[in-house]
Design a protein that fits this description.
Distance between the termini: 17 Å
Oligomer: single chain
Bound molecules: 2-amino-2-deoxy-6-O-phosphono-alpha-D-glucopyranose
Radius of gyration: 17 Å
CATH class: Alpha Beta
Helix content: 25-40%
Largest sheet: 7 strands, parallel
CATH topology: Rossmann fold
Shape: globular
Strand order of the largest sheet: 1-10-9-6-2-3-5
Length: about 240
Amino acid sequence: MVIYKAKDYKDMSRKAANIISAQVIMKPSCVLGLATGSSPVGAYKQLIEWYKKGDLDFSEVKTVNLDEYKGLSKENNQSYYYFMYNQLFKHINIKLENTHIPNGIAEEEAAECERYNKTIHCLGGIDLQLLGIGHNGHIGFNEPNQAFEKNTHCVALTESTISANSRLFENAGEVPRFAYTMGIKTIMQAKKILVVVSGGDKAEIIKRAFTGPVTPSVPASILQMHNDVILVGDEDALSEILL
Ligand code: GLP
């Protein structure tokens, strides 16, 4: 694993955006695995800026997102589709038909998981997967568990995730209780993984995930087994693992 220490959120975002840009420049038709949450927003802003300057071209890029709330449609302003469209897709020249996110309002849960697995498989897998980490060590919505779930599945969100994500809703009662998420095997099959973290509130989980035992009770700990992980964090988030 390579660790880049950033001064602050802005610096972290620039460093992460540089790595994503390099991927897009080296392989214009690459498959990017994308994430939602506060951590990647700054990197998306930076990519948009470089695109507007003419430095980046997303016309052949394909994307697959990690997760989506069950029960929310694309038009719902709390859905991850809405987030991705507004934080990134609508500002760049990506073709919307090349962007993929689980369908939160699919009628059949199992069929939707199967469809999403196939979509990723047909694209040939993920070249670069961007990840944030939840306070309990979740990646995507792979919550702490007895075993690592391999493929796309529907999960019951934990109270800690519901409470962390409630900051983006009117109140905790509005946070969906279930979500679709890419599985751990699919994430681990990405050729390269870029983790972005900021803030002292993530320091403890970063220590557990990257220096503790590999266990499904800390899903991000599996990343220790991947041979090409880049962790970009600000000083506060990395304070427990770097002197
Ligand atoms: C959410 C998302 C994750 C994200 C995590 C951390 O639950 N499903 O994909 O990585 O929270 O979010 P944040 O970056 O806002 O701390």
